Amino acid sequence: MCGIVGYIGNKKAKPILINGLLRLEYRGYDSAGVATVEKNGITVVKSKGRVAALESVKAIDSLEGTIGIAHTRWATHGKPSDENSHPHTDGKKNFAVVHNGVIENYNELREFLGKNGYSFYSETDTEVIPNLIDYYYQKDSKDDDKKVLRAVISACSDLNGSFALEIISTFLPEKMIVVRKDSPLVIGRANGENYISSDIPAILSYTKDFYLLNDLEYVVLSRDKAEFYDKNLNVIKKDVVNIDWNASAAEKDGYADFMLKEIHEQPKSIRETIGSRLTSDGICSIESLELSKEYLSSLNKIYIVACGTAMHAGLATKPLFEKLCHIQTEVDIASEFRYRDPLIDEKTLVIFISQSGETADTIAALKLSKEKGAKTLAVSNVIGSSITREADYTVYTHAGPEIAVASTKAYTSQVVLMSILAIYFAEVLEINSDLIPDLKKAILKLPSQVEEVLKIDSMIKAFAKKVYTEKDIFFLGRGIDYAAAMESSLKLKEISYIHSDAYAAGELKHGSIALIEKGITVVSIMTDPALTPKTISNLQEVITRGAKTLVVTNQDLGDKVFDNVVKIPETISLISPVLSVVPLQLFAYHISKEKGLDVDKPRNLAKSVTVE
Ligand code: M6R
């Protein structure tokens, strides 16, 4: 999705803006642009294509200004083109704006502005914004230092939809105004300068001190300060939050791709997730989570709501909540949940999992749950992200920044944290389970076991080389292995573009086995001793029909001989996705590399889906 960078300080803005845009490339985009305040007004340079294309536009060489805004656009309204790229200006170039989000009523606003003498050069929803600001600015008869701010506030009050905006103006040449609503934006504070971005990693090398914005807080930035206002121009007090992420965590560190680096970081990220929440003497605690026994006992349902990989982390951990806490637990896709009037009330706890904390559907589902009286708990990786500020409670995965579009280390950390949460709930509920002490030990072993799994890489790479030209690859599993199969299949399809589906192995005979023909590849996961014999039978059915197989297992398969077996360390089946998914992340990675694809930035995908 679109990315935003901004700078106001004493250095030349252009290199900082370009550097920030390059760091945002992973989000996926099709055009880029910058605007700076120059001696003779605002200069805009933009171009279809990559940041490299923008850098080759001649006009960019002349940018000297120390205040600037920049954007990578992922086309929604209007095709990728120079005209549709951001920044956008009004006709007189009084205002320049970059925008993330969607303005739902832009047609109405365009018509209104058209009747008031404004004209448009692009097909975008964004172009109404600088024009609307100019309209209100021209209408305001009071001439004081808040005039631009008032115009921005009036314009934003007319906008329906979501927006994160950076605004510069020839009427306020030493300042910049920023505001957000349902779209991420942070301000990085440094000495005599402010950095702005939609994503913390893009400006992490300049500062670790951030202002986190709530919806419709208007910020007037000058070089050495940030002033916060509400829509009635009341001053808002805002504290700086220190984000303890290592800037080098957002670099490739010698790896060919971010995805490969992040796969290999999993032992470390899982260790960070466990942190002091689970100690070797068996103490389980979750910081800042005060859920009483009385409250947890009053629940008749837990919902886990999320999208994509995060939803798969919910599927992988639902059985733990049911088994340990004896509370019915449902998993739902946020985009479905939000529109189907779910049966929830104050006796429901809704857990939202989101790596970015900015996924539009997940945020909407969270707001709906609150309206219906449920308590909400966010599981996120990004400190201060939108869902963490909306939810009643938040726990962080602490996996470090995840840059590759395909989620890997965030998934394993989500599964680990959700497992610890289930144990914590069971202990608060004083439910005695023989499983809990074993589970705690098993979770503590996971980081070193993932290290073991990562050593199996060459065998997986060899298999990937054999099958990378295939058109379809299927995944099978039962129970918890079905949840892991779904995640593995998603990983493969998103970065290899090979058609893939995951099936509950027992469902095969009810239709999908019709797809099996000679030579097709079927990947099967088997980690549950109670279900392995059943899955073996299903696997034999597909082998009989000519399939070649890859088996990921920690079981002794007895006298059953399969061609390609990846043996992973033993653990309790309920947490096995943390181990079984890792070789299949590598499988997807190697297939994508064999096909010569862009692993970190797969086509049509964005890292965080901030629009519906
Ligand atoms: O930031 P979130 O965890 O809310 O993102 C949810 C999904 O968009 C995300 O997991 C997506 O499915 C990944 N690209 C999968 O690798």
Mind explaining what this structure looks like?
The protein is an alpha/beta fold and 612 residues long. It folds into 3 domains: 3-249, Aminohydrolase, N-terminal nucleophile (Ntn) domain (Glutamine Phosphoribosylpyrophosphate, subunit 1, domain 1); 252-453, Glucose-6-phosphate isomerase like protein, domain 1 (Rossmann fold); 457-594, Glucose-6-phosphate isomerase like protein, domain 1 (Rossmann fold, 3-Layer(aba) Sandwich). The chain has an 8-stranded antiparallel beta sheet. Helix 15 crosses helix 18. The structure holds 5-amino-5-deoxy-1-O-phosphono-D-mannitol (M6R).
Characterize the largest beta sheet: strand count, sense, and whether it forms a barrel: 8 strands, antiparallel
Named at the architecture level, the CATH assignment of the largest domain is 4-Layer Sandwich
The 3D shape can be described as globular
How many β-strands, per DSSP? Answer: 25
> How far apart are the termini?
11 Å
Mean pLDDT: 94
* CATH domain class of the largest domain: Alpha Beta
Low-confidence stretches: none
From the helix content, strand content and strand pairing, which structural class follows? Answer: alpha/beta
Tell me the name of the CATH homologous superfamily of the largest domain: Aminohydrolase, N-terminal nucleophile (Ntn) domain
**What number of structural domains do the residues give?**
3
